[in-house]
Description:
The complex is a heterodimer of chains A (about 550) and B (about 130). With about 550 residues, chain A is of the alpha/beta class. Chain A has 24 helices and 18 strands. In chain A, strands 5-4-3-6-7-8 form a six-stranded parallel beta sheet, sandwiched between helices. Chain A has a six-stranded parallel beta sheet with strand order 11-10-9-12-13-14, sandwiched between helices. The longest helix of chain A is centred in the N-terminal third of the chain and has 31 residues, at about 1-30. Chain B has about 130 residues and is mainly alpha-helical. Chain B has one domain. Helices cover about 80% and strands about 0% of the residues of chain B. The longest helix of chain B has about 30 residues, at about 95-125. The N and C termini of chain B lie close together (about 10 Å).
Amino acid sequence: MQPVFYLLLQRMRLPLIVLIVVYAVSIVGMTLIPGVDDQGKPWRMDFFHAIYFVSFLGTTIGFGEIPYPFTDAQRLWTTGVIYAAVVAWLYAIGTILAIIQDQGFRRVLTFSSFSRHVRRMQDPFYIICGYGDAGSLLVRELTERHIQCVVVEKDPERILGLKVADLLEDVHGLCDDAADSGVLIAAGLRHRCCRGIIGLTGNDHDNLTIAITSKLLAPQLPVICQSDTGDTAANMDSFGTDYIIDPFDIFASRFALLFHLPSMYLVYEWITAVHHAPLSDFKAAPEGNWILCGFGRFGRAVQERMAAEGVETVVIEAEPERTGAPPGTIAGRGTEARTLLEAGIDQAAGIIAGTDNDTNNLSIVVTARDLKPDLFAVVRQNQQRMNPVFEAAGLDLVMQPATLVARYILGLIVAPLLEDFLRLARQQDESWANLLVSRVAGVVEDLSPQTWDVEISPESAPAVHDALSRGREVLLEHICTRASNRDERLPLVPLLIKRDRGDLLLPEMEEPLREGDQILLCGHERTTRLVQHTLYDAATLEYIQTGIDRPTGTIWRWLTHA
Amino acid sequence: MNLEKVLFAFFSILALTLNYGFFIGEMDDPTHHNAYELFAALIVSLIATIMKFGDRAHIGALLLATSLVADLQLIAAALVWGLTVYGAQTELSPEAISSVVSLSGGALLANLTSVILLVVETVTYRR
């Protein structure tokens, strides 16, 4: 609040001085001008009456001529005082209003109220720089999991969008440049509750600045940044940015799975899905020739991965020289039938519309489907607000960079083990993936499962820790059993146990738990709380293990012992 | 030459001189102490205070504090004067005027401190 207060005082200097001078001159004038009292004797107003008279005159209340009716000379002076006082007051009030309206002042005001709110935060929170498509989706997902966040965004329109967004948690947003280190500090970079910083500004250079600033000012904080170009990514990597996210590369690597490991693709889709997303269906990409429209960052990434899978692609690109398209590229947009025919659409198995223009992408697919209705259509959707149109188009696969990025970051935040799991899963074969898909399908209904981490430690699983330290064995199935009916398994699938002596992928239920184990679970949202209860409550855990409902109170326990 | 500094020095020293003019004379003789002089001292002191509003330098804050003290003392003096004459409806007694004058003496000290601080600031001024 300090700077705002000083600014206000500084700007009020002149109006206040004008006001005081006008009052002083008016008061002195009133005391100097001769008048007459009720007996007609000469009389002069004293300071007390002069101050009283000018005060009510200046505020245009006007109680009349006191204590005696005025002479003409006094009335003349009073007329002057009325105008001078009104002008002085208008000037003073006008200045106050102008200060309040002033952009700079408002900025100082919102900035200080924002940093005050951030300073008072008590719970762990994340700083999200950029409230675009990916940022807003991430904020929504985090708040639905009751994780606090703070938003910094340059565009005032988007900050307005944050203010009217219907979120479960109170999210403070500041309209300012996140590349400014002062802004990042105000957003809580050095706050003891800050858990990480996420750069999604949509501008590689800004994201880079955010990464550098936070690595220098708060080296212990994890930094997650989106990067669309290879050299920025390398630059970010060089000073230890923890996670660099390239949505095109993520998509291309997953898309490549569709050709030979479609179940594995489904595993990825399900396990990294957003909150309450409907479960996606099984699909596999047909082999054969593919047409790829647009050879930008997206097209390049997809083409490389497809080539690695042994799938032939014909590239259509409007500017083949500038983008460095491979030989054999057909020049054109792909939105007209002629170029598509030239690319051999009648022989093609699928088409990928990957330009940076949503309308063109839709147009490409519609034209292509007209020529060959059974084409497998993959489309890049750049803007989230085009959602209804893309849904209506009946496409096989839509690539939304924003959703992809938000889901990826969400996984890093709520289930850090997910990355380990997906890396290990990559080395498995299709039959393993089939097994996992059938297991997961068995425990979830029509909504995507949640994945979350559990750690066997005194803080996060005191009951299990206690049992282990007493030498009692706790099996994985114990924490996966329903407390109200110990014969019933909770609908969840343990995906991974991470421990020092090797990781266990899809552990068996009979696996004994050890101190320090990190377990990745996957199941319905409701089960998260049930598992939590068993981890915390020793009596529940013991009941599940032994079937004996042991009393918890000291006296009752002593009585049952005796 | 900085106009802001000139104006501020002018008002600070004027507040001191006016205050001194009111203060000087027999302590309990109302004819030695003019009401206009007290009024002028108060107004000039108020202006000097406002001119230091929003100054974030350390010496600026000190100057603001001393001139606030002077304002307070002078307002108290004016109130004592007004209350004895109009509140109690009595003539200005020697006791009352001496209390007014001693209050203005306090303000004089505060104004003197202001001027000393001003001199210190000027001496340490390096541009």
